Amino acid sequence: MKKINWTRVMFVSGVVAIIVGAIDPLEGSVIIVAGSALLALSTYLTHDRHHKIFLASLIMIALGVGYMFYTSSLGGFGGPDNLSFWWALPILPYPIGWLISIILLIVRAVKK
Fold first, then answer.
1. How far is CA 39 from CA 33, 54, 55, 64, 84, in A?
2. Which among 6, 44, 50, 62 counts the fewest CB atoms within 10 Å?
């Protein structure tokens, strides 16, 4: 019987989650956070040389998504009654962290 490599399963699940979550970045943000966490954990457990970058990306994504939920609970931004668009600035770590993860995954795939 073949033994299951759980770190590989976590890595592949994380990749799938951050790609599927990007179909709808607002509703899929929780899926993207979970996928990023799986990527960070699997690379940490396998002592991958990129694990610190995946961890930094996870922190950026989680902070951006958390702030996005916060501004959403205040009623969102833009429009005459709502918060100004400057309130959207702290959400930027979310797409930047996602882009870093995707670029790093592409670089890893090309090097193999």
1. 10, 7, 8, 18, 34
2. 6
CA distances for 36 relative to 43, 74, 93, angstroms:
11, 26, 13
DSSP one-letter code for 82: S
C-alpha closest to that of 100 among 108, 89, 110? 108
Longest distance between any two alpha carbons in the chain, whole Å? 64
The pLDDT tens digits for 38-71 are: 999 999 999 999 999 999 999 999 999 999 998 8
What is the token pair recorded at 96? 């930047």
β-strand partners of 83: 77
Q: Decide which of 38 and 78 is more confident.
A: 38
